[in-house]
Amino acid sequence: MPEKTQILLIDDEKESCQALSLLLGRAGYSVQSCHSGEKALSLLKKHTYELIISDLFLPGVSGMDILKQVKEDSPQTCVILITGNASAETAVEAMKEGAFDYISKPFNFERLKLQVAKALEKNQLVTENLYLRQQLQRKYKFDNIIGTSQAMQQVFTRMEKIVNTDSTVLILGASGTGKELVAKAIHFNGARKDKPFIAINCGAIPADLLESELFGHVKGAFTSAVSDKPGKFEVANGGTIFLDEIGNMPLQLQMKLLRVLQEHEFERVGSSKKIRLDVRLISATNANLVDQVKKGNFREDLYYRLNVIPIVLPALKDRRGDISLLAKHFLTKICKEMKRPQMMLDPQALQAIEAYNWPGNVREMENVIERTVALTDGETIGCNDLPADIGNAKVAQTSMTPQVPANGLNMPKIIAEMEREMILQAMGIGNGVKARAANLLGINRTTLVEKIKRLGIEL
Fold it and tell me: CATH for 411-455, among 1.10.10.60, 3.30.479.20, 1.10.10.10, 3.40.50.150?
């Protein structure tokens, strides 16, 4: 049986209090009553109530005092005030202080019961919203972004330094490296976490619609504008806006975005009315914006505006020490989501996963693990359960000696590429510690440092 809703009823008129308590009890509520404000405050320290119904004029501590205390301690709790001496002034004051409703005596019980139901519905919505926000914040904590490699530790360090600032952030990385996840983690761990986080993919919306999508429009601005519509920037006001794939933004719109960043205001399409803006901008791209600037496809001044704090997310093949960790994390997560017993990767399957280059990065790995869990009957995943290109990756890696063609090959280049790949793998497995990586490669640390410099490897 579900628990009854808890209501605290406060009225110094005992007969009136008993009658209302009886009526609310018959309506299915659990009612606790008291006859003074002092007793009510004592009860509120010990118990939690979904709704408070209080007479306004009580001897000593008044209903208004109780309202103020409740709103200070538990803002989501609704308070209904009842009085036999109603006035417009006290009604306005009660509503300003946060009362859900203000009802005059003698009152119609059916009307009160309706207001009680509405107050409890509001309380439930607020509680659910608070719970969802807490879940989002938990979901996007830094420790939910998996990685122990040196490359990811550098990302975490930078995130920690900027999370409580309002600085503009540019996240760089290949598709599937988790750019939006990082953007959400920055937002939900920062000062704006209780405000909106609005994401928009600049590459997924046609160029002629993107301006309206970002900045909104007024009725009649164009043929299909049948009503006013706020844009994403307006919806995000006070919070964070995340512009994904910003390298795909048309040049004419780049100019407007630059003005918005400079002036902190904008106009809807078809309007000249200025709207003030207070948002944190986080953008992301898998494109090389420096090359785009050189080619004339991206404004240089906008690039510098966006690139205040860059965060570079490494490709999965460049953080091989994290691959098995990620695979096990996704396996546990997906088994729980599918309500399946915990599955295991056999050693050969794990070796194949570690040997594969993951061109689709973390997103590809999550999709592969999900597909494998769904299609595997047993509780152990072997190489044969993985997609063929992944299951065969270990075999391919062990037979990677290139064949010499009739027209020859560039042996120094091939050897350099092999050295680069092995060094990156060893650094990943060794969590970025050069001494560990050198030991794994069978060379001394000084030789490893020289090879890293010669090959131009960025760690």
Answer: 1.10.10.60
